[in-house]
C-alpha cells in the first residue's frame, strides 16, 4: 500500500466524519436515524475502489471504538458497536467493498458520461444500499428481538433518501473520474 493510498483512506475517513456533522433525522418509531454518513460508503467505494473504500470504513470503526465522537450526532464508543445500529456500521465496510468492486468492473475512462453515471449508480445501489441494509437489518432484528419481516418493513422510510444519496454519489464519482480518476480499473 502506497502513501498515496493511506492519504486517500484518511481523507475519505475525514469526509465520512464531516458527513456525520450533518444532523441525523430521527423517525420516532425507528431506532435507526437517517444520516448522511451512509452516503460515504457509496462515495468511497465509487471513487476509491473496493480495497481503499473498505479500509476507509475500518479506520472509521477504529475511531468509533476508541470513543471518538465521529458518528452522526457526535456518537462514539464501544457501546455503539454493540447497539442496534452496529450492523449498519459494520455493513459500511462490506458495502464500500462491494460498491468499489462493482464500480471497478463496470466503469471505464473510455465510456460516455451517462454510462459511467449508471455504472456508479448501480454500484452505489447494490453495495451502498443493498449490502448495508442486509447487515443492518439482520443485526437490528437480532438486537431488538423483532421478526425479520418487521425489520425489513422498517427499512421502507429510508429508501427515498437513499435513492437521493445514490444519485449524488454517482454524479460526484463521475465528476471526480473526469477531473482526477482514482478508481482502480479491473477487467
Q: What would the CATH topology be?
A: Arp2/3 complex 21 kDa subunit ARPC3
Q: Could you spell the SSE succession in H and E letters?
A: HHHHHHH
The CATH class name reads: Mainly Alpha
Number of domains: 1
Shape: globular
Helix-strand makeup class:
mainly alpha
- DSSP strand content: under 5%
Number of helices: 7
The low-pLDDT segments are none
- Gyration radius (Cα, Å) is 16 Å
In total, the number of strands is: 0
How far is the N terminus from the C terminus? 21 Å
Largest sheet: none
Helix residue percentage: 55-70%
InterPro entries: BioY
Pfam families: BioY
Transmembrane segments: 57-82, 88-107, 119-143, 163-183
Membrane topology: Multi-pass membrane protein
Description:
The mean pLDDT is 91. The protein is globular and about 50 Å long. It has helices spanning 3-19, 37-48, 50-65, 86-106, 113-144, 148-153, 159-179. Helices cover 67% and strands 0% of the residues. The protein is mainly alpha-helical and 187 residues long. The protein has a single domain (3-179), classed as Arp2/3 complex 21 kDa subunit ARPC3, CATH 1.10.1760.
In short:
Helix content is 67%, strand content 0%. By secondary structure, the chain is mostly helical. The longest helix is centred in the last third of the chain and has 32 residues, at 113-144.
Layout of SSEs?
Layout: H1 3-19, H2 37-48, H3 50-65, H4 86-106, H5 113-144, H6 148-153, H7 159-179
Subcellular location: Cell membrane
Family: Belongs to the BioY family.
InterPro entries: BioY
